[in-house]
Amino acid sequence: MIDDPRADVVSRQYERWRYPRPIQDLDAWVVNNWQWFDPVHAHRMLWPDREYKPDLDILIAGCGTNQAAIFAYNNPAARVVAVDISQASLDHEQYLKDKHGLWNLELHLLPIEEVSTLNLDFDLVVSTGVLHHLADPSAGMNALASCLRPDGALAVMLYARYGRTGVEIMESVFRDMGLRQDEASVQMVKETMSVLSPDHPLKSYMRVARDLEASDAALVDTFLHGRERSYSVDECIDLVTSAGLVFQGWLLKAPYYAHDLFAPPNELYPAVNALPEAKIWSVMERIQTLNACHFFMACRPERPKEAYTIDFSSDDSLGYVPMMRMRCGLDGNEIYRTDWRTALNTAQFPFVQHIDGRRTIREIAAAVAQGPGSRRGDAGDVEKFARRLFQGLWRLDFLAMGLNLG
Fold first, then answer.
1. Strand locations in 300-363, DSSP E?
2. What is the DSSP string of 71-119?
């Protein structure tokens, strides 16, 4: 029998060590920050077949200190319902609700395993960084699946196994040292990190986990957590399917593909890309091992696959509408996202230059073929080049794809 989640080791941790770090003012925070699954910008990843729907019913399952308030702030016509097992975290969500007049936000002290007691269902269910802390993650996933509408999307973040190797090494060190969730142990964690060699496996994680230097609660959450586990690609898919859901896809796709678009010619990437899609993901997570978090979507099996599947293997993909993702764009001949940019060559640039969120790939290819300086070749050659280019940019998280099903 599982103990009451309201009083177990995880609940006690977050009562004392509030994490993520509480945001004091959302007006200032949203200028340079965002939530990855926020439908105000991510709707085409969640629902490629439709425009943004402002009046969504959203569940934030394990809202922490800030997440639900951010969703309510950015989606004022939505109903945002949030649950958490930490009253301290909910108190800060209430502070943000009162400060910013977020009357569309409802807060509940409730474990994820008991969300069915709300007697509600939702268009979007978001649970980031929570399921891997539950005593029984499958029970949590089943609970979330039970309140998802037939055309809804479940948005999840789980710890990724291979990108957290350094973290797991240090967790084992601190367990053997008998460290606890107290100030003296946190200080010992800091001392230990300060003497690690530059080639220690933790160093690559520290370069992306910037809050470790600014927050004691982040150190506790990362190295001294009461309960957690990490997942491989196959285990993510198994967790989804065991709850009777379908794996919809990755929100952040770059870690799971062999990117031959900008890479020097080699024999590995074509061999990997010839594998089935799920096998590509599994192989590449073990080759590109820096990814520490899986961000993915799932849905109910009755949701039509053609409403969310992005597949560049057929000519149907010429009907996709490419659009820049959040904080992505063109700067001269460089395409950029928040953490990386790369130059487009003279063949690639005209295609990307025609992206406007309305034109299909077929229309862009036709415009390039008719434009100045177009190369020799028939329409089929141009369309084939366009499909490969936009597939590569989609896999690298520069682009989202809209589906024109009408």
1. 321-324, 329-331, 334-337, 340-343
2. HHHH-TTSEEEEEES-HHHHHHHHHHHHHHT-TTEEEEE--GGGGGGG-
Identity of the residue numbered 338: T
Before 54, cis peptide (omega within 30)?
Answer: no
389: left (phi over 0), alpha (psi -120 to 50) or beta: alpha
Residues 217 and 341 in one domain: no
Query: What residue type is assigned to position 7 of the chain?
Result: A
Please tell me the total count of domains within the chain. Answer: 3
Find all residues with CB under 8 Å of 112, minimum gap 6, and list them.
5, 61, 62, 83, 127, 130, 131, 134, 140, 143, 144
* pLDDT tens per residue, range 208-266: 888 888 889 999 999 999 889 999 999 999 999 999 999 999 999 999 999 988 888 89
If asked whether residues 262 and 133 sit together in one domain, one would say: yes
Find, among 200, 5, 251, 248, the residue nearest to 112 by Cα: 5
Letter for the amino acid at 105?
Answer: L
Helix axes 233-242, 137-146, angle to 10 degrees: 50
Q: In terms of domains, do 101 and 205 share one? A: no
Residue 192 shares a structural domain with residue 210: yes
Range of the domain at 95: 5-161+230-307
Helices 183-194 + 165-176 axis angle, to 10: 130
Of the candidates 307, 339, 355, which is a domain's last residue?
Answer: 307
